[in-house]
């Protein structure tokens, strides 16, 4: 069981944020819903949940959270899920989205199109021996991945879980299963580990 006395923030502007709080609670980790920049203070990390990335992007800007999250992410771990993964990219194929540029890659919205609005696939996680059943819901694609980004899981040869420094982004929904390995990995390897590389949030995916 994870022991900690710090709080993980869960961005609660739109989307599937409550289930992340439930998982954190099962792991005995305190969480706090984040809707205002000042609510980030005292948090040791942030989860950006799935939902609708166009809406989340708009609300991040409206609530004055864009610069606040970027600043927070310089020294704190961020986990982005589905729409949250899209928000963490340096480039997105939809101009309505202003990505936070936390991991250098390009996100493709609804990449798996109409055939695969929703599906479950067994994937191999680079950090775990047994297969993981991943739930994809209108999942984004991950392309133009910069060399310094680690791919932690793929599905049909496409990256679905990536990591750079303290940040992890997944295109599936780890909060929709009882299998807590994704949150546990991020907590153990990113949230509780000192950052061993400086972040350069301005670096583009195509640099
Ligand atoms: N397709 C959604 C988007 O582009 C993401 C879906 C999700 O988060 N489950 O924002």
| CATH domain class name | Alpha Beta
The helicity comes to: 10-25%
CATH architecture: 3-Layer(aba) Sandwich
- Mean pLDDT across residues: 91
Please report the distance between the alpha carbons of the first and last residues.
40 Å
User: What ligands are attached or bound here?
Assistant: glutamine
Q: Walk across the major sheet and give the strand order.
A: 2-1-3-4-12-11-10-7-8
What is the total tally of β strands? 12
| Rg, Å, rounded | 15 Å
Share in β-strands: 25-35%
Outline, from the CA principal axes?
A: globular
Unreliable parts: 195-207
Question: Which helices and strands appear, and what pairs or packs with what?
Answer:
Layout: E1 7-11, H1 18-26, E2 30-34, E3 43-48, H2 53-62, H3 66-73, E4 77-81, H4 83-88, E5 91-92, E6 106-108, E7 118-125, E8 132-137, E9 141-143, E10 150-155, E11 158-164, E12 167-170, H5 181-191
Parallel strand pairs: 1-2, 1-3, 3-4, 4-12, 5-6
Antiparallel strand pairs: 6-9, 7-8, 7-10, 10-11, 11-12
The protein binds glutamine.
């Amino acid at each position: 069981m994870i022991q900690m006395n710090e709080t993980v923030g869960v961005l609660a502007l739109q989307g599937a944020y409550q289930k992340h709080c439930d998982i954190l609670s099962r792991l005995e980790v305190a969480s706090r819903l984040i809707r205002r920049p000042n609510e980030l203070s005292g948090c040791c990390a942030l989860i950006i949940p799935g939902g609708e990335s166009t809406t989340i992007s708009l609300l991040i800007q409206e609530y004055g959270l864009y610069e606040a999250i970027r600043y927070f992410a310089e020294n704190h771990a961020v986990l982005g899920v589905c729409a949250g993964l899209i928000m963490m990219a340096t480039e997105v194929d939809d101009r309505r989205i202003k990505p936070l540029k936390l991991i250098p890659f390009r996100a493709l919205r609804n990449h798996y199109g109409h055939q695969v609005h929703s599906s479950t696939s067994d994937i191999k996680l680079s950090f775990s021996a047994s297969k993981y059943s991943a739930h994809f819901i209108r999942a984004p694609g991950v392309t133009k991945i910069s060399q310094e980004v680690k791919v932690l899981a793929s599905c049909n040869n496409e990256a679905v879980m990536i990591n750079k420094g303290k940040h992890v982004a997944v295109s599936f929904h780890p909060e929709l299963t009882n299998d807590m390995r994704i949150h546990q990995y991020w907590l153990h390897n990113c949230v509780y580990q000192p950052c061993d590389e400086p972040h350069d949030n301005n670096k583009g995916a195509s640099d």
